[in-house]
Amino acid sequence: MKPLLALGLAFAAVLAAAAPARAWDIFTFPDAKFAAQFPSEPQMAQSKYRTTTGLEAPAQRWAIQERNVAYSVTLVDFSGTAFDKDTAIADAVKAFGKDGEVLVDVEARINAEWGRELSVNRKDGGHDIVAVFYFDNHLYLLNGRAAPPDPGAATANLIRFQQSLNFMR
Q: What is the pLDDT at residue 128?
C-alpha cells in the first residue's frame, strides 16, 4: 500500500504544479471610461495627483498588489486646468524619468487616442512598465511595477497589463 500512496501523492503534486495560473479578468469602469485586465479585482481610492510643476489635481486610483508586483491605473481630472493633452503626457513621462532610467519611450495608440508607453528601470532596483494617455480631459496612468530582487520575472505580466488598457466612449 505504501508504494501506491507514494505514487498517489506524487501524481497529486504533479497535477498541482501543472495547474494553470489564475486567469486574469477584464475589469470595466464605465464611469471612468476605461477597461483593463487585472490579475484580480482592484480596489479604488480617491487621491491627489501632483505634476512636476506643482499643480495638484483630483485623481482616482484602481490598484492591486500581488507578491512583489503592483498593478495600478490612476485617472487624473485635468478639466478646468491649463494642462492640455501634450502638456499632461509630457509631464507624466518626465515624472517617471525622475524615478529611474527610461529605457523605452514610444508613441502608442488606443483606438484614435495617442499616448506613450514606457519601460523604466527604477533607482530602487525595480522595474515599471507604463502607459500614459490623455482622454476626455483626463490623464490615464497605467503602471505595472515589479519590485526587487527579480523584477524581470514579472515582465510578461507587466506587458500584458500595459497592453490591456482600453477606452470606453
A: 97
- The pTM of this model reads 0.85
Total structural domains in the chain? Answer: 1
Please indicate, yes or no, if residue 92 is contained in any of the structural domains. Answer: yes
Domain assignment of residue 3, yes or no: no
Q: Which grid coordinates are listed for 149?
A: 530582487
Q: Provide the strand spans (E) within 3-137.
A: 25-29, 34-38, 43-50, 56-66, 69-77, 100-110, 113-122, 127-135
The C-alpha angle 151, 154, 160, rounded to 5 degrees, equals 135
Helix (H, G, I), strand (E, B) or coil at 84: coil
Q: Is the dihedral of CA 135, 138, 140, 141 positive or negative?
A: positive
Q: State the CATH number of the domain containing residue 139.
A: 3.40.1000.10
